[in-house]
Amino acid sequence: MTVECKNCPLRQKECFQPFSPQELSFTQGFKSGELSVDAGTTIQIEGSETPHLYTVLSGMGVRYKTLENGRRQVINFILPGDFVGLQAGVMGVAGHSVEATTPMVLCTFRRSDLWRLFQNHPGRAYDLVWLAASEEAFLGQSLVTVGQRKGLERVSWALLKLFDRLKHLGLAKGNRVPLPYRQQDVADALGLSLVHTNKTLGVLRSRHVARWSDGELQILDRETLQGYALVEEEDVGQRPLI
Amino acid sequence: MTVECKNCPLRQKECFQPFSPQELSFTQGFKSGELSVDAGTTIQIEGSETPHLYTVLSGMGVRYKTLENGRRQVINFILPGDFVGLQAGVMGVAGHSVEATTPMVLCTFRRSDLWRLFQNHPGRAYDLVWLAASEEAFLGQSLVTVGQRKGLERVSWALLKLFDRLKHLGLAKGNRVPLPYRQQDVADALGLSLVHTNKTLGVLRSRHVARWSDGELQILDRETLQGYALVEEEDVGQRPLI
DNA sequence: TCCGGCTATGTCGTAGTTTAATTCGCGAAA
DNA sequence: TTTCGCGAATTAAACTACGACATAGCCGGA
Q: Which of A159, A139, A143 is nearest to A63 (CA)?
């Protein structure tokens, strides 16, 4: 099966990244199995062997690193269509953990099949580079946000990013999207304390800008939220980089 | 020319990343020219077209993003052997700037040659994925540091990282390495103010842990510095990821 | 000699952390 | 049904790490 990719002007077909995850032509001749997990399951543990790579077919989760002092940095939020495992550290030893926050279905690939894939399918290799570069670009944005912006800006940025990603996946109903995370997850992603994140969310709620409760995010005043988030137009992570 | 790569156990030859930059077998059939620039030159400007990719043959610089409010986030420090431009945004429009802090010599590649390279040289494609993943892993570490650690820890971490990278490049003379950056650069990389970074450096100096002046960094008490930096053993960025 | 960029250091205000107490579900046990 | 227990959200109060501002010293270049 070959599908059109709306996001990749350079190579108009067989491009990898998120549209309908089920359509991933990438899986041809590479997929090794499927994996279903419950909410709360840790799919990958920091420092453990990871012979597999994954794409997320459904469900959501977080990718994070834990520190010596017990604190935690959420690297990014894992949504359907995301590719997981490329970032894994030295020779398949993961440098981070991945945890499901909802039930998830994953498509698994064997890491050891990767080299064969490169030799036989240059297009897929190209896609992987693009993926890795997208990821890198997103992390760059996170770094800017965490490093240079204040609490309100960070929280607004995160909500907006998540909203748009989920909308892009077709999960938005009007101005609402499902957001099955805890406030702690967002706090850990933004380098803020839970308490301060909570208060900031309270501010956004009281100003009728955004409301997030019961696992559902609602954007009430996108204009203002964007103002807080100081968001750039460029929507990295959805388009090809090379 | 084919060289041994000390860092890549999986494919023992023709692997890309930093050893002696001059040996980059990668350049075969891909290199399109060389570029020499003075200290202070901006090689790449955020938002501008970037038809080229680079490897650094000599000299140092910074890669950064500028914000609406004038602040700046240094994404990483560019050292000899580094590959620049893969991260560039949509269709060759850079999402960040690159500036030389010393005179630099760069090896240039045409972005448009990339696709051909993938088709003809799967090994190089493999290297590129590895590179991108390394970069991504490093950014993950930065994010953890900036998001979760305090000033002293951040500064210590940065000094240690830079020291080790430069040492790995063979630029260390005993416990000294050249470090041609301004304090502002480090501050911007760590999400700290210049003043606070300065004071923290003062602390390290007065405690006889590390001294940085006149473009030269000196580690006086590595043990203690590592303690501050809370550094993990894993040295991502020097080893293959897939 | 003056000027501009970088480093150094002191004071003070504040954004954000820490700790803790309260509340609100919600599922399991009684 | 009520009760208990647990995890998450919420709010308040005390503390602190860090930023903003100001000032001074240093050095190289015009």
A: A139
| CATH architecture of the domain with residue range B21-141 | Sandwich (2.60)
What's the pLDDT tens digit per position in B26-73?
555 677 788 899 999 898 777 677 778 888 889 999 999 998 888 999
Enumerate residues 6+ apart whose C-beta is below 8 A from B118.
A122, A123, A125, A126, A129, B124, B125
| Six token digits for residue A68 | 């010596």
Helix or strand (DSSP H, E) at A145: helix A122-148
Tokens 């650069």 identify what position? B185
Per-residue pLDDT tens for A4-46?
A: 333 332 232 333 334 333 344 555 567 788 889 999 989 877 7
Domain B145-229 has CATH 1.10.10.10: yes
Residues spanned by CATH 1.10.10.10 within chain A?
141-229
State how far residue B156 is from chain A, nearest Cα, in angstroms.
16
- At A43-97, the pLDDT tens digits run 877 777 777 888 898 999 999 999 888 899 999 999 998 888 887 655 667 778 9
Give the chain A residue whose CA is nearest to the CA of B141.
A65
- Which residues of chain A does B65 touch, with a Cβ-Cβ cutoff of 8 Å? 140, 144
CATH, domain range A21-137:
2.60.120.10
Please state, as a whole number, how many other Cβ atoms lie within 10 Å of the Cβ of residue A4: 12
Residue ranges matching CATH 2.60.120.10 in chain B = 21-141
Give the best residue of A14, A68, A90, A190 to mutate against chain B (max B CB count within 10 A).
A90
Partners of residue B230 in chain A, C-beta under 8 Å: 67-69
- CATH architecture for residues A141-229: Orthogonal Bundle (1.10)
